[in-house]
Amino acid sequence: MPGNAFGQAFRFTTWGESHGPSIGCVLDGVPPRIPLREADIQVWLDRRRPGQSRYTTQRKEPDRVQILSGVFEGVTTGTPISLVIENEDQRSKDYSEIKEKFRPGHADYSYWAKYGIRDYRGGGRSSARETALRVAAGAVARKVLGDTIRIRGALVQMGAHAVERDRWDWAQVEQNPFWCPDPQAAAAWAGYLDGVRKAGSSTGAVIEIVAEGVPPGLGEPVYDKLDADLAKAMMSINAVKGVEIGAGFAAAGLSGEDNADEMRAGNDGLRFLSNRAGGVLGGISTGQDVVVRFAVKPTSSILTPRKTVDVRGQDSEIVTKGRHDPCVGIRAVPVGEAMMAVVLADHLLRHRAQCPD
Amino acid sequence: MPGNAFGQAFRFTTWGESHGPSIGCVLDGVPPRIPLREADIQVWLDRRRPGQSRYTTQRKEPDRVQILSGVFEGVTTGTPISLVIENEDQRSKDYSEIKEKFRPGHADYSYWAKYGIRDYRGGGRSSARETALRVAAGAVARKVLGDTIRIRGALVQMGAHAVERDRWDWAQVEQNPFWCPDPQAAAAWAGYLDGVRKAGSSTGAVIEIVAEGVPPGLGEPVYDKLDADLAKAMMSINAVKGVEIGAGFAAAGLSGEDNADEMRAGNDGLRFLSNRAGGVLGGISTGQDVVVRFAVKPTSSILTPRKTVDVRGQDSEIVTKGRHDPCVGIRAVPVGEAMMAVVLADHLLRHRAQCPD
Amino acid sequence: MPGNAFGQAFRFTTWGESHGPSIGCVLDGVPPRIPLREADIQVWLDRRRPGQSRYTTQRKEPDRVQILSGVFEGVTTGTPISLVIENEDQRSKDYSEIKEKFRPGHADYSYWAKYGIRDYRGGGRSSARETALRVAAGAVARKVLGDTIRIRGALVQMGAHAVERDRWDWAQVEQNPFWCPDPQAAAAWAGYLDGVRKAGSSTGAVIEIVAEGVPPGLGEPVYDKLDADLAKAMMSINAVKGVEIGAGFAAAGLSGEDNADEMRAGNDGLRFLSNRAGGVLGGISTGQDVVVRFAVKPTSSILTPRKTVDVRGQDSEIVTKGRHDPCVGIRAVPVGEAMMAVVLADHLLRHRAQCPD
Amino acid sequence: MPGNAFGQAFRFTTWGESHGPSIGCVLDGVPPRIPLREADIQVWLDRRRPGQSRYTTQRKEPDRVQILSGVFEGVTTGTPISLVIENEDQRSKDYSEIKEKFRPGHADYSYWAKYGIRDYRGGGRSSARETALRVAAGAVARKVLGDTIRIRGALVQMGAHAVERDRWDWAQVEQNPFWCPDPQAAAAWAGYLDGVRKAGSSTGAVIEIVAEGVPPGLGEPVYDKLDADLAKAMMSINAVKGVEIGAGFAAAGLSGEDNADEMRAGNDGLRFLSNRAGGVLGGISTGQDVVVRFAVKPTSSILTPRKTVDVRGQDSEIVTKGRHDPCVGIRAVPVGEAMMAVVLADHLLRHRAQCPD
Prior knowledge:
Chain A is α+β, with helices and mostly antiparallel strands. Chain A has 8 helices and 18 strands. In chain A, helix 1 crosses helix 4. The radius of gyration of chain A is 21 Å and the shape is globular. Chains in contact: A-B, A-C, A-D, B-C, B-D, C-D.
């Protein structure tokens, strides 16, 4: 009933705060005899790591993952896998300002209202630092899914500036600091984001995650639909305000003729002539690419003073100083990929419990 | 692990197919000593019932709910509440066409791929008929929430035609067959939808659900966030392709200054100067209105022949004859309200388990 | 979080009270394409049905099960299976006595203390009538397990009178009204129980359930051990006060030499030279017979007046009149078999989620 | 669905193997603002710690617990509490014998059958070392329960030698190395156990756990009964083969008159004239002491050679050398207390979710 775990058959629980000694994650239900080394996880953590360009926070965290259990002689044993990452950059800092005031757009007030206490150091549990553990869990999930399922993500909109889908090139995603599949958009974003950063402001983004090679049949009707679990997974990422599958909100403006994906016989079963469904019908995968997009709000850590209230209920103003991300959506790309991986791994295991063939 | 239940502390499981003898729902965890009569549930079912205007399917279902357990002498006992609704309109019909072919945009193929069998009569388990049970569960959830929390829904976009928010008037919602809060939009939609209906086509929609009076503190970080569970709840409704909270996808285009809701001292705690967050920060309610929108695709039951494949893998064409909804989004409004109610009831109970004050 | 469901992958929820219109059960997670007719369930319900000899309550219930969903054209579809049984023997009765007083040894007081309300008609939700649904769920579980796993139960002790294990003959179990494997014990019990019945008294019993053909590997360490889930399953049956596996409590008096089951190579893998473990080591099945015993207390519905308190807190006396079972343990045998079946089915599905080979 | 977590509202997950770098536990759902220091947990770990007398294994583990998250400025924050204990005594050892052979009475074979791999170092995940984490979780649970609920345990039988209940004195439990409440029995056990130890043999035991001050109303009918969850909790402890509540198996031999606990009006509600129910009726606490007993088998690590089979399926013999416990039941006393605490804490939170008054 408490909410710090995700998944049912492939299940992980995360723990830790932004400025505690470490953060970690326990994975339960991972199949046995899967080769797994720390490097298999590290490679994904390194993609998310902050401070890799001038466009992300300069917090220096090596984010070295350690495997403490569940792996023996290089393979999983089927018992819980405990992962831990030290918090190295706990710089001694003056928190007196945010200790007393609720930062607008942050979880300061809502945590305080819920628990009657909050760890005010850097957001505590509500910090995006927790997303490192999602990436680590996602790395293990990818091992469970195997090589036939490929998961990739891209930033498709920064502020009001969207990519041109005709120019989409997956190879470009690794070539710029924005995970942008459109080289012209990437170039334009660089200038735009420099402006945002210098103004001490921030901007939002839209991320798209695509999973290829997903077999048909994953998803549990009628509440644990594959798309419903994906919606929950993505919406649970810090700062996400919207999720859509396939055509998404645009489907509201389509006619039934345009929206329904027609089918033809294919070499290997059937094939669809379009993918407005985003790979899911009735909550169950169809074998097409599973396509999810989510919107990330601009971070509320900005240099402009904002009206707020302090813990004694007095009107006040606040400026969130120090390092910050002008576009937190950039770092959300590997996190979205990871959440896609854990949802698919969970449903793969759940599916074979009921339908073992 | 199977997926036909929703919620954790306030939990319900639904069963039944479109053309079986009946459908039903079992609610577990409902607090004791709450007055509950069948009429308390029926009133909400009547709002969802098809056939109430020329804009919804003409399937005639009285949808009479019966309480079979869990209520004694007019109040809940704390034990499971079993609700059942007879399927009366099981007209004998020729299913030979859809028995053999997969309807595009429907769950026919994905169910068949998952289970190796499907109940082809009217969609079986994947039919929107199941949503009657969501409405019934939502009626019980409203009783749990009490009178201080008010949940209302409206259709805010039909096809490409959105309401004008400056003209929003909740009283209008009950005055037209579309749950439209903007009388001018409602008038325009009537003509638009008649055209769609006569063409045998269909159109999508966007629905907005607002919950007022939600206390701060509901939601379980970091995976079972209130907004994450709302996203799952709404995405699990038939035909939904996108969900957003507060500013939603528009947040991607905002600056940090515009997005973060400022605060001032209020008479009763603090107040926010705007509500782009949609009443949720860090996954926990803030006391502001909780605002969710979701997009419904156009139904795939249309009169234009569509390319498909049959169960033997041969190319074919299909037309879905008979009754259909030109805009299934209309009937999704009461369903969305119900899902908001069950999510809030669940989190209310979960919250007081951990934080009993 | 509420407690009216059992199992995780093979999961069922029961509802209904002793004197409501009906009782029922919803099974979720049942694999598709399993042949299932009402008769497959009825055969097991008939074994549990009261009124079959003078040794069980004379309540007349045909206990006719109906399948309302989840089965199409004679096979399971993978969607929820709803089962319902009408309560036919709701004889109009004067409940004024038990309405006002708490029956000793019954759940009257504890339900009242928990919920502040109770359905006093025949025990309401706490009635053993609920166990009919366990038997129904167990019948479906047996279908999931298939023919290679055989589950049988026997009464091995009535009052202080135990069977002689050297005389154990499974064929005898069907030959007497006690499910007794020892014909001499059965003969002795007949006279003993007649005496108990005529005295308006009651007696306890011990039941043994044996599952043969269970494959090695079922069970989830370290909390959801197979034996831990069996303990919970059996202890959840009405009136059960103790559960043991294999040697059970007698293991406390054994030496390590006598307790550990030695192994030798066998034709089909290894074989054990004894089975004090009861088929479970470290919470995981070994391939030996899984052996569970549980103790059932004597029913508290007896003709001798007993001291009690009424709902106003006044001292009082009570006699529980009307039909009753002199040894409720007799009817617990099919219930224990059913709970063994559901635990094994659940763990079979759970196992193949993680370990698909 | 995987099985390394316990509880629903008060939920903890454990990880780690006997000979990995560390073991740990993550608690989720702990209420906020509870004072908690490492010393509050350490005091209970110290009671369980091996090597405190000649009657327990000489493995030297300081078992120093560290709190890594969820506590801020000395109080719980409501977010996950991560506890870790280093494994310091990982002596380099020759595992070649047990690597190749299955130890009778241990989980070696069943883990191997389930996972196709096992961590053979000291039992890996199946080692009783895991129970240190149960004790740690139990220490937090005691904080949640508060001072009005008191949980104590005692060894009531060693081998075939039971305590005399008339001599029961809780103060004695802390005065001997056996947690024995009967000083005469303790004296006798000392000699008996020396004999067992010197013979390289082992003996079983029965433990009794008593919780005083439990409010009436805890427990969730009909599957998550308080006694059913206690049965699961105790049976999940390593080497436990039987669990009973109140009169337990002896209830089978009682008459209905003797078994049902009569009631009289008391100063503070009602009082019971006896406690054969063990504080639970219908799965719900009555306000009486909750009394649970469980049987622990003799450890299978003994010096006598035993017949076994090796991983290649060949007949073999094995002797388990090195440190061992002649009566592992002794160290199970603090573990049983802890499991009582976590079950009660879980049900306390669950109860107030549904019944908040």
